[in-house]
Amino acid sequence: MNQVIVISGPPGAGKSAVAGAICERFDRMLLIEVDELRRWVCAGYRRPWDGDAQAEEQLRLGARAACAVAREAIATRYAVAICDVIDPALAEVYRDALEGVGAAVHFVTLLPDLGTTLARGGEAQGERTREVHAQLSAAHKGGELPGAVLDSSQDADAYVTADRLQELVARGEAVLLPE
Question: Are residues 108 and 15 in contact, defined by beta-carbon separation less than 8 angstroms?
């Protein structure tokens, strides 16, 4: 099926593992790790959370590059999973850049509880994980996150979360842009 699934969440939420589990289920699917695209900046690289104008520019550049790759993949009949840490403002960049892509676009934020997020690998980024988790939790409570939010705290592994994510998509609960 031609579709784009954008998976967001704080560091350690399991975005890459869940996206990998989803990709295993399709014959033709592309996985876009936006952090990898951002590392293409060879000179003047800024971390997405550095908070200056250049970091913001690169944050948006990575999102738009992911969407451009997704457009090419959809045009050649590949489904796409995009993994990124996406706040409500960056979600608008994705929405705008994927408008008219020719496939349904779904948006799911993985948001396990903080303890689970840290235990699953978020501790490597420590304070950054705590900040992003708090920001996404507040955005979720305020109804600012598009698509669906999935608490994967009790899921045994990424495959269980992938099953739940696919159920949300199948029921139309994660639609960012209809086909």
Answer: no
Task: Dump pLDDT digits (tens) for 26-60.
Answer: 899 999 999 999 888 888 888 888 889 999 999 99
Number of CB atoms found within 10 A of residue 77's CB: 11
Distance (Å, whole) CA 38 – CA 60? 10
pLDDT given at position 122 = 67
HSE at residue 89, side-chain half, CA atoms within 13 A, is 5
Residues 36 and 41: their CA atoms lie apart, in Å, by 10
Helices marked H in the chain — which ranges? 15-23, 34-38, 53-75, 88-98, 114-119, 127-141, 158-170
Structure tokens at 129: 């994980």
Q: How far apart are CA 21 and CA 160, in angstroms?
A: 9
Compute the distance between CA of residue 86 and CA of residue 144 in angstroms, rounded to an integer.
12
Work out the mean pLDDT of the chain and round it to a whole number.
93
The model carries a pTM of 0.94
Query: How much is the pLDDT for 109?
Result: 97
In sequence order, what are the residues at sequence separation of 6 or more whose Cβ sits closer than 8 angstroms to the Cβ of residue 104?
2, 3, 4, 175, 177, 178, 179
Contact 11, 155 (CB under 8 A): no
